[in-house]
Amino acid sequence: MIRGLLVATALTLSSSAAEFETTFENSNFTLSMPINGTGEHKFYNANRFRLSEHIRENNWFLTAIGDIQNHWGYDILRSDAFKAADALRADIPFEIRSGTFDYSEGEMYARLYRLYGGYADERHRISLGVQKVSMGVGRIWNPTDLFNPKNPLALEPDEVEGVLALAYTYSPSSLSQMSVVSAIREDNSFKHAGRIKGYLAVADAALNVIHAEDVTMIGYELEGELMKTGIELRSEGGWFKDKLLDSTFFQGLVGADYAFENSLAIALEWLHTSRTFERALLLGIPSGAPNNLVRSHDYAGIGGSYELDPLLYGALSTIISAEDGSFYLSPSVRYSLDDDMTLGVGALLHGGEPESEFGSYGQTYYLNFKVTF
After folding, report:
1. pLDDT truncated to tens, each residue of the chain (373 aa)?
2. Residue 139 is inside which H or E element, if any?
3. Which is it for strands 190-200 and 203-212: parallel, antiparallel or unpaired?
4. DSSP conformational letter for 147
């Protein structure tokens, strides 16, 4: 039904005076990384060719994004860490990845990244298909996002799987919104969400509710400027009932960010969780909110970026466990070769005692080349 509706929408748009925007992007990472937490490093190459098609006609829109992924590096591809990451799939009731083509040192497959369409005007927005459902106001963490949770430790934290959802937002004014989302999952059950957002005297505030067979959440969002100083303060959090773990806990954050006139931007966040789960993610404990199961009650996060000149851009992010002192550090530098090509270098660094949260991950270094046309 959903596929038929999207096809019908595309045919309708293509037969009218629609606007088409086609983008090709190729992103290549060459990494030197450890195998299974050891000090031995191996080279690994990941290449993603992405085709994006955006169609708009008056208030109607359609977006389709597809990838061809190629991974090269025999030792890394057969490591436990890669196999665990590769086994993760989008929580939707049909396969969006093709079969894997294996060759001597690597593998290749195609993937549907996004496919959704809908209608939007000043008051209403409705979308249907494989899409990203955004929740929360955090820069480093988004504990209230149980649809597309990002991993702040990942090489590309914003590269998240989509969900098959029907989403509707009504905006009675420029300062208020009411949203509902219903997503069908891999096991054909549903995950529902509701959100009410408005401006309360000094800050934007939102109330979020999520309900599914395996998890429920009541959450909040707060975001506003501190007394016209340019400092943005924010907070989000939720009370979770994880039915698979038979556990109830709170997780939330407070944060601030500020952009200086010289292009330096800094973001600070503190994440607190009322209950910890020892090595839960590594052990694969069944959970309705697996990304919210953390080993420390508290974490400090810092993110910063600076434009060294119009062509050179630097960024730095770090996460520190307040309980064992271990840390994650990700520095990167990106240089614009021209308007369509960038070259970047960076690292994913971990420190701490061998048994600490981040101390056993080792160090990864990478070179990234991206071209858009």
Report:
1. 444 544 555 555 555 578 999 999 999 999 999 987 667 899 999 999 999 999 999 999 999 999 999 999 999 999 988 988 898 889 999 999 999 999 999 999 999 999 999 999 999 999 999 999 989 999 999 999 999 998 999 999 999 999 999 999 999 999 999 999 999 999 999 999 999 999 998 999 999 999 999 999 999 999 999 999 999 999 999 999 999 999 999 999 999 999 999 999 999 999 999 999 876 555 567 889 999 999 999 999 999 999 999 999 999 999 999 999 999 999 999 999 999 999 999 999 999 998 899 998 889 999 999 999 9
2. none
3. antiparallel
4. S
The residues, any chain, with a CB within 8 Å of residue 187's CB and separated by 6 or more, are 93
CA separation for the pair 154, 156 (Å, rounded): 5
Task: Decide if 328 contacts 319 (C-beta within 8 A).
Answer: yes
Which tokens belong to 227?
A: 């007394």
Radius of gyration of the chain (CA): 21
Contacts of 214 (CB under 8 A, 6+ apart): 242, 243, 244, 287, 288
Residues in the chain: 373
